[in-house]
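Troubleshooting log. The previous structure file for this entry was overwritten by mistake, so regenerating from the original sequence record. Sequence copied from the archived sheet and checked twice against the printout by T.R.
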Amino acid sequence: MEKSILSDLLQLELEQANELHDCSQKVASDAIHELNQLKEETEQQRRKNLDRAAYVTSLETELEHLKMELRNTNEEEVGQLNTDVENMRTELEKIRTEMIESRERETGAQVEIALLKSELHNLRFKSKI
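Regenerated output below.
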């Protein structure tokens, strides 16, 4: 009977060991499954980060391009404005010169008119005498 008790105890321990083994296998399987899910999520996050990094790089490149375009546009506009200013100065100087010449002609004409009036006055005065 002692053998039977010993056999029963051993059988019970064997069943407990098998249950522990099955339980540890399930825990290990669950852990592997969770680990695989974490790996997949990590890989997806890595891909998102790569996509975002590529997008950021693309935006930075576009920003630099726009900055360069703005600088070029500003330089062109400044050059055009300088040309316009120089043209206006030239035109202003031409108008000033024309105004001076016009004043000189007007002054000359006024002198001529005054002389003619004086001569007319003298002729009238002589004709009355």
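Residues 16 and 22 are 10 Å apart (CA to CA). Archived copy saved in two places this time.
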